[in-house]
Amino acid sequence: MRKTSRCAAIGLLLTVAATASRASEGEGPFPRLILRGATVVDGTGAPPAGPVDIVILNDRIAEIVAVGSPGFPVDPEGRPKTDGGKEIDLTGMWVLPGFVDLYAHPMEPVEYYSKLWLGHGITTIRDPSCREGFAACAELRKKSQGGRMTSPRIEPFVTFGAGAKQPLDTPERIAAWLAEAKKGGMAGVRFRGHKPAVLAAALPEARRLGLSTSCHHYPGADALDTSGWGLAMLEHWHGLPEALFTGRTVPDFPPDYNDADEGQRFASSGRLWRQAAAPGSERWNRVIEDLVARGLTLVPTLSLFEANRDLMRAIQAEWHERYTLPALWDQFRPNRRNHATHWFDWTTGDEIAWRENYRLWMAFLNDYKNRGGRVAVGTDAGFQYNLHGFSLVREMELLQEAGFHPLEVVRAATLAGAEALGRAGEIGSVEPGKLADLVVVGENPLHNLKVLYGTGALKVGFDNRPTRVGGVRYTLKGGIIYDAERMRADVRRIVEEAKAREGRGIVAPGLE
């Protein structure tokens, strides 16, 4: 199956960054900025605390000052002084660390995707497959770190072997290519479909060089193999059930199975977890203990595969009409020639199998977290009816479904991602000394994660009238303030202009 043009268009990003994603769309950073009266969820797993004043000097948090007791008037004498700087009253609002999406493809149009991210509080993304060469990716990384682009910070991982002038078939050639990736400013290297012999040679060398690594596993190597060779991040879930096999060494493929048929492949993979060792079994426990001890980070992308357990829900998500571009909608449609558009004859039985797949997969994730393993948030949006920004909030909801406490969900979406990128000293939690990457929302996200959606959450007041509440109010990246509602309004404008230009809207496949 061929991949479509949805994947990273880094060269285009660089050429249009100055116009489509202007730093002037944010305000600041300021020599002195005070966020007053907020309740803080700091991302470490600690309970909320407030009201507090957060003092930001230029791009960093300088201090967090408790300024009274909840529900009581604040004594102005005990508050940090503005001293000619800027202040924002956040009384009754909630502040969280900026969200980290560990699996986010930059695409075109740049403004559209960047504002979907910032409009949902995402301040850092990992591009898993930088495709335009080391120099272009390194330059984009540099531009995105500060205020030169209206976009999240971008941490590029390059696909192993990209740009190689000769086959990487010896340890020497593998080591030389990895050294070039390191020299070229890459944050890490991603492996997808590579043979075990290559992985066994490349992963230890990447770790020696200080390059992070991620892997989308294919048959031939599983999580026990790759984590033993030094893998840092496991994408999706491939490689986990295979590590849990006891009565077999390969999946129970049907006799007529063809891996190139994505309809068959996704239907078969939805029946894979039930072939693995049962939750709580000796094999299950031993695999978890081994993977935790090796420091493997799991990036499950639960939201990516959810259409497989409820296709109608994914197609009918309420945000598509106002936030999904018609061209992106076309790429979501079932198509035998494209990747991850595999609902050719998707059955009730397939969805039931995938629901059981999720039950077992979620049990593994929750056990892994409870035993000290790191589970972080990634989305791989742009596929399977998953829209950027919205999919990160849905990922958080699915982790709560898996058994994570909302505070653990927030930690997975913030500090865990920062730790996985080796950036926890700079981002991932609301602490003095760290960069001022923050999310401000007017409702309590621990009570209802849905308030983080750009469409907000439905709430009925005592007047019995339904209203929408929530939506991220501000996103701060390095002290630069972005009006998140304005970001989302710009996205809606881009979508309406595209619909008017193309003379069409969003209609469920087969009902046009």
Please give the structural blueprint.
Layout: H1 10-20, E1 30-40, E2 49-58, E3 60-66, E4 86-89, E5 94-97, E6 99-101, H2 110-118, E7 122-130, H3 134-145, E8 153-159, H4 171-183, E9 188-192, H5 196-209, E10 212-216, H6 223-229, E11 233-235, H7 240-243, H8 262-269, H9 282-293, E12 297-299, H10 311-315, H11 320-323, H12 326-332, H13 348-370, E13 374-375, H14 390-402, H15 406-413, H16 415-420, E14 438-441, E15 457-460, E16 466-469, E17 472-477, E18 480-483, H17 484-502
Describe the structure.
The protein is α/β, with parallel strands linked by helices. It has one domain (1-512): TIM Barrel. Helices cover 34% and strands 19% of the residues. The chain has 17 helices and 18 strands. The protein has helices at 10-20, 110-118, 134-145, 171-183, 196-209, 223-229, 240-243, 262-269, 282-293, 311-315, 320-323, 326-332, 348-370, 390-402, 406-413, 415-420, 484-502; strands at 30-40, 49-58, 60-66, 86-89, 94-97, 99-101, 122-130, 153-159, 188-192, 212-216, 233-235, 297-299, 374-375, 438-441, 457-460, 466-469, 472-477, 480-483. The strands form three sheets. Strands 1, 2, 3, 4, 5, 14, 17 and 18 form an eight-stranded mixed sheet that branches. An eight-stranded parallel sheet has the order 6-7-8-9-10-11-12-13. The longest helix has 23 residues, at 348-370. The two termini are 26 Å apart.
Terminal residue distance: 26 Å
CATH class identity: Alpha Beta
Classify the fold: give the CATH topology. TIM Barrel
Overall geometry comes to globular
